[in-house]
Design goal:
Elements lengths: L8 E4 L8 H15 L6 H15 L7 H16 L5 H10 L9 H9 L3 E5 L4 H8 L8 E3 L1 H4 L5 H7 L18 E2 L8 H6 L4 E2 L13
Parallel strand pairs: 1-2, 2-3, 4-5
Helix pairs in contact: 1-4, 2-3, 3-4
Protein backbone atom coordinates (compact mmCIF):
# COMPACT_ATOMS: atom_id res chain seq x y z
CA UNK A 1 0.00 0.00 0.00
CA UNK A 2 1.42 3.37 -1.01
CA UNK A 3 1.83 6.08 1.61
CA UNK A 4 0.22 9.02 -0.16
CA UNK A 5 1.25 11.37 2.63
CA UNK A 6 4.82 11.09 1.30
CA UNK A 7 3.94 12.81 -1.97
CA UNK A 8 3.48 16.44 -2.89
CA UNK A 9 2.55 16.05 -6.53
CA UNK A 10 0.77 13.54 -8.75
CA UNK A 11 1.75 13.28 -12.41
CA UNK A 12 -0.57 12.02 -15.12
CA UNK A 13 -0.33 11.26 -18.75
CA UNK A 14 -3.42 12.68 -20.41
CA UNK A 15 -4.80 10.95 -23.49
CA UNK A 16 -6.12 7.56 -22.50
CA UNK A 17 -6.01 8.16 -18.74
CA UNK A 18 -7.86 11.46 -18.38
CA UNK A 19 -9.24 11.78 -21.93
CA UNK A 20 -11.14 9.07 -23.81
CA UNK A 21 -8.73 9.21 -26.69
CA UNK A 22 -9.84 5.96 -28.33
CA UNK A 23 -13.32 7.38 -28.88
CA UNK A 24 -11.78 10.51 -30.41
CA UNK A 25 -9.47 8.57 -32.68
CA UNK A 26 -12.18 6.15 -33.79
CA UNK A 27 -14.62 8.92 -34.63
CA UNK A 28 -12.09 10.87 -36.71
CA UNK A 29 -10.63 7.89 -38.54
CA UNK A 30 -13.90 6.11 -39.27
CA UNK A 31 -15.12 9.33 -40.87
CA UNK A 32 -12.05 9.44 -43.14
CA UNK A 33 -12.29 5.76 -44.06
CA UNK A 34 -16.00 6.02 -44.76
CA UNK A 35 -15.35 8.82 -47.26
CA UNK A 36 -13.22 6.34 -49.22
CA UNK A 37 -15.57 3.36 -48.79
CA UNK A 38 -13.18 1.62 -46.42
CA UNK A 39 -14.29 -0.26 -43.31
CA UNK A 40 -12.30 -1.56 -40.35
CA UNK A 41 -13.49 -2.85 -37.00
CA UNK A 42 -12.44 -0.78 -34.00
CA UNK A 43 -9.76 -3.16 -32.75
CA UNK A 44 -8.05 -3.38 -36.15
CA UNK A 45 -8.23 0.38 -36.65
CA UNK A 46 -6.65 1.03 -33.25
CA UNK A 47 -3.91 -1.52 -33.89
CA UNK A 48 -3.05 0.16 -37.20
CA UNK A 49 -3.15 3.52 -35.44
CA UNK A 50 -0.69 2.34 -32.78
CA UNK A 51 1.66 0.86 -35.37
CA UNK A 52 1.53 3.95 -37.59
CA UNK A 53 1.99 6.34 -34.66
CA UNK A 54 5.03 4.41 -33.42
CA UNK A 55 6.54 4.45 -36.90
CA UNK A 56 5.94 8.19 -37.19
CA UNK A 57 7.69 8.89 -33.87
CA UNK A 58 10.87 7.05 -34.77
CA UNK A 59 13.94 9.11 -35.59
CA UNK A 60 14.05 12.87 -35.15
CA UNK A 61 11.51 14.73 -33.05
CA UNK A 62 8.31 15.73 -34.85
CA UNK A 63 5.43 17.82 -33.45
CA UNK A 64 2.48 15.61 -32.59
CA UNK A 65 0.32 17.34 -35.20
CA UNK A 66 2.76 16.02 -37.82
CA UNK A 67 2.67 12.57 -36.24
CA UNK A 68 -1.12 12.46 -36.51
CA UNK A 69 -1.04 13.74 -40.08
CA UNK A 70 1.44 11.00 -40.93
CA UNK A 71 -0.88 8.42 -39.38
CA UNK A 72 -3.67 9.45 -41.76
CA UNK A 73 -1.35 9.22 -44.77
CA UNK A 74 -0.24 5.74 -43.66
CA UNK A 75 -3.87 4.61 -43.45
CA UNK A 76 -4.21 5.70 -47.06
CA UNK A 77 -1.12 3.74 -48.07
CA UNK A 78 -2.24 0.66 -46.14
CA UNK A 79 -5.80 0.67 -47.47
CA UNK A 80 -5.21 2.00 -50.98
CA UNK A 81 -6.60 5.54 -51.00
CA UNK A 82 -5.24 9.08 -51.05
CA UNK A 83 -6.53 11.25 -48.21
CA UNK A 84 -7.28 14.87 -48.99
CA UNK A 85 -5.40 17.69 -47.29
CA UNK A 86 -8.51 18.39 -45.22
CA UNK A 87 -8.71 14.74 -44.15
CA UNK A 88 -5.04 14.74 -43.18
CA UNK A 89 -5.62 17.79 -40.98
CA UNK A 90 -8.84 16.42 -39.53
CA UNK A 91 -7.22 13.99 -37.09
CA UNK A 92 -4.97 16.55 -35.31
CA UNK A 93 -7.78 19.12 -35.57
CA UNK A 94 -10.11 16.72 -33.76
CA UNK A 95 -7.86 16.22 -30.73
CA UNK A 96 -9.02 19.31 -28.78
CA UNK A 97 -12.60 17.99 -28.97
CA UNK A 98 -11.83 14.60 -27.39
CA UNK A 99 -13.78 14.31 -24.15
CA UNK A 100 -12.72 13.37 -20.60
CA UNK A 101 -13.79 10.07 -19.12
CA UNK A 102 -16.91 10.45 -16.94
CA UNK A 103 -14.91 10.20 -13.70
CA UNK A 104 -12.00 12.44 -14.71
CA UNK A 105 -13.07 15.95 -13.70
CA UNK A 106 -14.49 15.02 -10.30
CA UNK A 107 -11.40 12.95 -9.48
CA UNK A 108 -9.00 15.73 -10.47
CA UNK A 109 -10.88 18.31 -8.40
CA UNK A 110 -10.77 16.01 -5.38
CA UNK A 111 -7.04 15.34 -5.78
CA UNK A 112 -6.32 19.04 -6.31
CA UNK A 113 -7.48 19.68 -2.73
CA UNK A 114 -4.53 17.65 -1.43
CA UNK A 115 -1.82 17.51 -4.11
CA UNK A 116 -0.18 19.55 -6.80
CA UNK A 117 -1.03 18.06 -10.19
CA UNK A 118 1.14 17.74 -13.28
CA UNK A 119 0.85 16.44 -16.82
CA UNK A 120 3.50 14.50 -18.75
CA UNK A 121 2.28 14.16 -22.33
CA UNK A 122 3.56 13.35 -25.80
CA UNK A 123 1.14 15.94 -27.26
CA UNK A 124 2.04 19.46 -28.39
CA UNK A 125 1.42 22.24 -25.89
CA UNK A 126 -1.11 24.08 -28.05
CA UNK A 127 -3.18 20.91 -28.47
CA UNK A 128 -3.08 20.22 -24.74
CA UNK A 129 -4.09 23.82 -23.96
CA UNK A 130 -7.46 23.17 -25.60
CA UNK A 131 -7.82 19.88 -23.74
CA UNK A 132 -7.02 21.47 -20.38
CA UNK A 133 -10.14 23.63 -20.63
CA UNK A 134 -12.20 20.42 -20.37
CA UNK A 135 -10.40 19.04 -17.31
CA UNK A 136 -11.75 21.43 -14.71
CA UNK A 137 -8.48 22.13 -12.84
CA UNK A 138 -5.33 24.17 -13.36
CA UNK A 139 -2.28 21.92 -13.51
CA UNK A 140 0.76 23.13 -11.61
CA UNK A 141 3.15 21.81 -14.23
CA UNK A 142 2.85 20.58 -17.81
CA UNK A 143 5.70 18.80 -19.57
CA UNK A 144 4.95 18.15 -23.22
CA UNK A 145 6.84 16.87 -26.23
CA UNK A 146 8.33 20.16 -27.31
CA UNK A 147 9.51 21.03 -23.80
CA UNK A 148 11.31 17.73 -23.37
CA UNK A 149 12.42 17.26 -27.02
CA UNK A 150 10.14 14.26 -27.21
CA UNK A 151 8.68 11.99 -24.57
CA UNK A 152 11.82 9.85 -24.63
CA UNK A 153 13.57 12.66 -22.71
CA UNK A 154 11.23 12.42 -19.73
CA UNK A 155 13.22 9.73 -17.86
CA UNK A 156 16.11 12.17 -17.59
CA UNK A 157 13.79 14.70 -16.01
CA UNK A 158 12.78 12.12 -13.41
CA UNK A 159 16.35 11.01 -12.78
CA UNK A 160 18.27 14.26 -12.68
CA UNK A 161 16.15 16.41 -10.41
CA UNK A 162 16.62 16.92 -6.67
CA UNK A 163 14.34 15.65 -3.94
CA UNK A 164 11.27 17.77 -3.09
CA UNK A 165 12.60 19.16 0.18
CA UNK A 166 15.56 20.72 -1.63
CA UNK A 167 13.43 23.27 -3.48
CA UNK A 168 10.65 25.52 -2.28
CA UNK A 169 8.50 24.99 -5.38
CA UNK A 170 10.02 22.25 -7.49
CA UNK A 171 8.80 21.43 -10.98
CA UNK A 172 6.89 18.22 -11.31
CA UNK A 173 9.89 16.15 -12.30
CA UNK A 174 11.68 17.01 -9.06
CA UNK A 175 8.96 15.58 -6.84
CA UNK A 176 8.39 11.90 -6.40
CA UNK A 177 5.74 11.44 -9.10
CA UNK A 178 2.78 9.25 -8.32
CA UNK A 179 1.85 8.47 -11.89
CA UNK A 180 -1.80 7.43 -12.08
CA UNK A 181 -1.98 5.87 -15.49
CA UNK A 182 -2.63 2.74 -17.40
CA UNK A 183 0.62 1.17 -18.58
CA UNK A 184 1.61 2.61 -21.94
CA UNK A 185 4.24 1.32 -24.25
CA UNK A 186 5.96 4.70 -24.65
CA UNK A 187 4.55 7.67 -22.75
CA UNK A 188 5.13 8.68 -19.22
CA UNK A 189 4.29 5.86 -16.82
CA UNK A 190 7.07 3.49 -17.81
CA UNK A 191 9.89 6.08 -17.80
CA UNK A 192 9.05 6.98 -14.21
CA UNK A 193 8.88 3.31 -13.25
CA UNK A 194 12.24 2.59 -14.86
CA UNK A 195 13.99 5.14 -12.65
CA UNK A 196 12.37 3.91 -9.48
CA UNK A 197 9.37 6.23 -9.21
CA UNK A 198 6.23 4.51 -7.90
CA UNK A 199 3.33 4.34 -10.33
CA UNK A 200 -0.26 3.19 -10.48
CA UNK A 201 -2.27 2.02 -13.47
CA UNK A 202 -5.84 2.92 -14.41
CA UNK A 203 -7.23 0.35 -16.82
CA UNK A 204 -8.99 2.31 -19.56
CA UNK A 205 -8.00 0.35 -22.64
CA UNK A 206 -10.73 -1.44 -24.58
CA UNK A 207 -8.82 -2.94 -27.47
CA UNK A 208 -5.56 -3.97 -25.83
CA UNK A 209 -3.70 -2.50 -28.83
CA UNK A 210 -3.87 1.23 -28.52
CA UNK A 211 -1.54 3.70 -26.88
CA UNK A 212 -2.00 7.08 -25.28
CA UNK A 213 0.00 10.06 -24.12
Amino acid sequence: MLEFTRYEILTFDCYGTLINWEAGILSALHRILSAHAKTLDDATLLKFYGDFELRSEEGIFRPYKEVLASVVRQFGTQLGFTPTAEEIRSLPDSLPTWKPWPDTVAALKLLKNRFRLAILSNVDDDLFAATQLQLGVDFDEVIHRAASSGIQAVPQAFRASPEPHQRSRPPCASCRPEHLSRCHSRPSSRPGHRVGKPSLSKARRRSGQSRGG
